[in-house]
Design brief:
Largest sheet: 8 strands, parallel
Radius of gyration: 24 Å
Order of helices and strands: EHHEHEHEEEHEHEHEHHEHHEHHHEEEEE
Helix content: 10-25%
Strand content: 5-15%
Shape: globular
Strand order of the largest sheet: 9-8-7-3-2-1-11-10
Number of helices: 14
Distance between the termini: 61 Å
Number of strands: 16
Low-confidence stretches: 1-10
Length: about 550
């Protein structure tokens, strides 16, 4: 499909290493801004808010899947990679957005979901129609069942969304047929990455979007592509690389091929992996110079608000990245994770999907104070920074009524898990009542998820007028981060200020200090305070606060 004349790809000022220090803002299109009043965010809505994103100080936008999809899993069930979901706009809208953002110096990163497609994808529909033993089925994991009549699933593998990983087909005559594999929902059949068609198709998809000016791709579930064709059960003790569906060695051949494609384009086109691998050395293998550029750091995001835990995570991730020379990434949340303001106000401030439950109490005042401190802490760490939409506003997680929930994680848990919709509620832009400027005035439809009444005080409009707001803090932090060469990628050195304090030097004359203890602490000798997440108390840094300091040069 040719590019539209109005949207020839443009690129921000050339910087081959932009990705090593970039501030990347995650856009969940469905909840960002609704331009046409149908209650669903869209690409024209994003285009109308590019000025806000420029003012915030971000370097790139990462978009969750924006493709045609039945939305069985929020768009991660892709039916067509070369078009845009009609609710979000058109391919021409995407091309304009990429070009207009680039003109403002903002790059675009899109999501690729290579492990599976939608059950409505033409390939899967053709496989169902073609029947057992057909070439069309070889692109997926169709398999006879076990037992005399094939009534038992081929394996007892457990879904990432809980429940079974195999669904049985029905033949045209109504008799039970083969089973097909889905590590997520039945509407997301897994692709067979041993098949050359699958590899060729995804390489062509990369070229399609790179041709349209996209600066990078985020690779969903990057470690799950390759399966053991023998279909063994998961052993009680899994040796590294021996899991039948996770982190198998052959997956690296896929990303080496993708890297060759990315490197064939002008400018640096980056590969960013969603890699859930607990072994640090195997995690780092995805970041070798001929594979991905960076990978998400889930460890830091999952740790509790505790000095020893956070320092251990920082050391772990920096040590894991060092052998391959890759920068770490830092993030406090995303479209799957409980928002920081809520999480950090809980008795257990760590994150794990298995622990999510309705009615978990939280102290939002405490959570907001800690989220402010965490914002400056992460922005001072070496590497790139990811920011999920709404975290710059300090939005809390919303506990939604069960009847409006849309997330399959909720339904596949038997209703025990509240799911991920609480961090996906549409953003508040202005005004004192819903939809808070998310949709145009007089919109015919309400936002696809309801916004709580207390969000009036958290809108962009309200916070722009408040120097004590979370938005002001983020804007100031990102301006300083852009101005100070020592921030972003580069070395850091720990400074010992006690077991409850995280203090480190960046460059020759900048120090970040975070107090996670119960008592206020003295600041190191400094010339000035560049920024603080909370006011000092009698010259001391209060509990749950971070300050950035200009200090005398280390060699003075």
């Amino acid at each position: 499909m040719p590019l539209t004349d109005a949207a020839a790809p443009a690129a921000p000022a050339d910087d081959a290493l932009w990705w090593r220090s970039a501030v990347i803002y995650q856009v969940y299109v469905r909840s960002f801004a609704d331009s046409d009043g149908d209650g669903t965010g869209d690409l024209r809505g994003v285009r109308s808010r590019l000025g806000y994103l420029k003012e915030l100080g971000v370097d790139a936008l990462w978009f969750n899947p924006w493709y045609p999809s039945p939305l069985a899993d929020g768009g991660y069930d892709v039916a067509d990679y070369r078009d845009i979901h009609p609710a979000f706009g058109t391919l021409a809208d995407a091309e304009l957005l990429i070009a207009e953002a680039a003109a403002l110096g903002i790059r675009t990163i899109i999501d690729i979901v290579p492990n599976h497609v939608s059950s409505e994808h033409p390939w899967f529909q053709a496989a169902l129609a073609a029947g057992p033993g057909s070439p069309e089925r070889e692109r997926f994991w169709f398999h006879p069942g076990k037992g005399p009549n094939g009534d038992e699933m081929p394996t007892r593998w457990v879904s990432n969304f809980q429940g079974d990983t195999w669904t049985r087909t029905t033949e045209p005559d109504g008799t039970p047929g083969e089973w097909y594999l889905h590590l997520f929902t039945p509407e997301q059949p897994d692709l067979n990455w041993n098949h050359p068609d699958v590899r060729a198709e995804h390489e062509d998809i990369l070229r399609f979007w790179f041709d349209r000016g996209v600066a990078g791709v985020r690779i969903d579930s990057a470690g799950l592509l390759i399966k053991d064709p023998a279909l063994p059960e998961v052993p009680d003790v899994v040796e590294p690389g021996a899991h039948p569906t996770e982190d198998r060695d052959e997956v690296h051949d896929v990303y080496r091929a993708w890297r060759r494609i990315a490197d064939s384009y002008d400018g640096t086109r980056v590969l960013v992996g969603e890699v859930w691998v607990p072994d640090a050395s195997r995690f780092a293998a995805y970041l070798r110079p001929d594979e991905m550029h960076t990978a998400f750091n889930f460890d830091f995001m999952s740790r509790p608000w505790d000095a020893a835990e956070l320092r251990a995570s920082i050391d772990l991730m920096l040590d894991a990245h060092a052998p391959v020379g890759a920068p770490s990434t830092w993030v406090l949340s995303n479209h799957d994770v409980t928002r920081p303001v809520t999480r950090y106000g809980r008795e257990d401030s760590s994150f794990a999907f298995a622990k999510k439950r309705f009615g978990t109490p939280t102290d939002l005042e405490l959570g907001r104070r800690r989220a402010r401190a965490a914002a400056l802490l992460t922005a001072a760490l070496p590497g790139s920074l990811y920011l999920y939409q709404g975290d710059e506003l300090g939005l809390p997680e919303v506990e939604l009524p069960r009847e409006v929930l849309d997330d399959p994680m909720h339904f596949r848990s038997g209703g025990v898990d509240p799911g991920r919709d609480g961090c996906r509620v549409p953003l508040p832009w202005r005004g004192t009542s819903a939809p808070y400027g998310f949709s145009p005035d007089g919109a015919a439809a309400a936002p696809w998820l309801p916004q709580p009444p207390e969000w009036a005080a958290l809108s962009v409009q309200a916070q722009e007028a408040d120097p004590a707001s979370m938005l002001w803090l983020y804007r100031q932090a990102l301006r300083i981060r852009r101005r100070e060469a020592a921030l972003g990628d580069g070395p850091m050195t720990w400074v010992d200020r006690g077991p409850e304090v995280l203090c480190f030097r960046r460059g020759d004359d900048l120090v970040s200090i975070t107090n996670l203890g119960r008592a206020s602490v003295a600041l190191p000798d400094h010339e000035s305070i560049l920024l603080a997440s909370a006011p000092l108390e009698d010259g001391l840094l209060p509990t749950d606060a971070t300050a950035w300091l200009r200090v005398p040069p280390a060699n003075s």
